[in-house]
Amino acid sequence: MRPDELIGNSVEVLKNNYYKRMLQTKQLFFKCLQENKTLEEFNREFAKIWEGLEYRFMNTRKKELETLIDELNKVSLDDKTKEFLELISQSRFDEAFKKYENTIKKYYQNRLSTIDNVEDIDSYLSNFVSKYDDYQASIPYFTKSGLLHSYRDIADYSSMLFNTNLLRIAINRTLYDAEYLDMDLIYIPAHNLSCQKCIEWQGKIFSKSGKDKRYPRLEEAYSNGLGHPNCKHVPVLYWDESQIQKEKFNSNYWKDQYEIDQKKKAIQREISKKNTDLKIYKELNNKTKIEITKKQIKRLRLRLSEL
After folding, report:
1. CA–CA separation, 5 and 20 (whole Å)
2. Does the global pTM surpass 0.90?
3. To the nearest whole percent, how much of the chain has pLDDT over 90?
4. Residue 93 backbone class (left: φ over 0; alpha: ψ -120 to 50; beta: rest)
């Protein structure tokens, strides 16, 4: 397995784990409201869904990733890697989850306070199934300059942090190996489905120090797109020409494939969300919404098959 594949697969597992729990929480939200459960009762069931969410998974992947990179760099070290790039702390993950948790619980409390005088609770709750998703995107994401870029849900945000940490672990290991072997040249292997920020930098040799004028300085690539929050390009030591890939994955074909892959993932996620909505509407016995949602799922599946 390549380092970029290890990072990509690991991040996808974590993201799907979060997303599955998010959908379970949405079902719980409406089930508890339908049964007029107290906030305390909702909180207890919420905790059951999210229990066991921990990050030892990252420690396992860290070891696997460092071992894989050492093999590629032709070095065997048992030493602890230097943190040339600081890893995101556990508290950052915890703060993001707390923001999500507080937002959902506050929304539950607000909705609960409005249903006492409602005659048809099922119809009333049906009006909020779609709106609920707005409250899931509750975590602010800021640019390097401190500007608010967007709001993310807990799955997107936490997987982005996880991806960033795995990439920094990989970069740190190669920089450590380079320091240990006193090597300056670094190669960025190309991989398919690269985004536009990285595509011009992959498959190239760089000088870590900038002293070898035959190649651009490594910092130039990292200052101009490479290493962004969801990047999976892992640098390795450059030994000889045998490492240079003939396929750079930078043609228009691969650019199109990246866009198609992103669209497929978005549609698959939307289908999962709509299937959850369908279950909720069935519990609320809203036949009109059931039929509408079934048609939406059918259209989404058709779009997916056409890609």
Report:
1. 22
2. yes
3. 86
4. alpha
